[in-house]
């Protein structure tokens, strides 16, 4: 597919966020200059092709026919043809240079975009790894803290159970001792005569 000046004018590039790059207005102005020169070269090329076609069809000798008295009249046609070829090749060279420049700019933009994309991906992956590492470290720390708290609570529960068992045993011993004392007092009261009690 041949590239035309209109293709350059209507070409739209995607804007990339968070990307350093060329000033879009400056690039547009430069492309406008390229298009103007390209169109001039194409118009000149068409004009030269028309002159060449006219010359090859014999229209050029007819234009030279009104001056047959001049012997050197046919000579200007070849002289005119010689500069026409360098002009045509010059415009072709200029067009090729413009296309090459546009292609180089395009390749630079693409390469820069790919490099920036790769850099953003690498930065994002590094950030993900950092966040993941921090989260894993925090999880390990939290797990360790919870384990310490669990061990502390289990030790406290064991301590309270031992305290309860000891307290129950002491209470049982105390109550049993009080019951024995009551039984002994009631047994001694039963053996004492009523007259001794003072009734």
Structural topology:
Blueprint: H1 5-10, H2 24-57, H3 59-64, H4 76-191, H5 194-197
Helix pairs in contact: 2-4
Short description:
This protein is mainly alpha-helical and 199 residues long. The chain has helices at residues 5-10, 24-57, 59-64, 76-191, 194-197.
Description:
The protein is mainly α and 199 residues long. It has a domain at 20-57 and 78-141. 83% of the residues lie in helices and 0% in strands. It has five helices and no strands. It has helices spanning 5-10, 24-57, 59-64, 76-191, 194-197. The longest helix is centred in the last third of the chain and has 116 residues, at 76-191. It is rod-shaped. Mean pLDDT is 78; it is low at 60-88.
Query: Stretches where pLDDT falls below 50 for ≥5 residues?
Result: 60-88
How many strands in all?
A: 0
Q: What number is the mean pLDDT? A: 78
- N to C succession of SSEs: HHHHH
Oligomer: single chain
Strand count, sense and closure of the main sheet?
A: none
Secondary-structure-based class equals mainly alpha
Keywords:
single chain, 199 residues, mainly alpha, 5 helices, 83% helix, rod-shaped
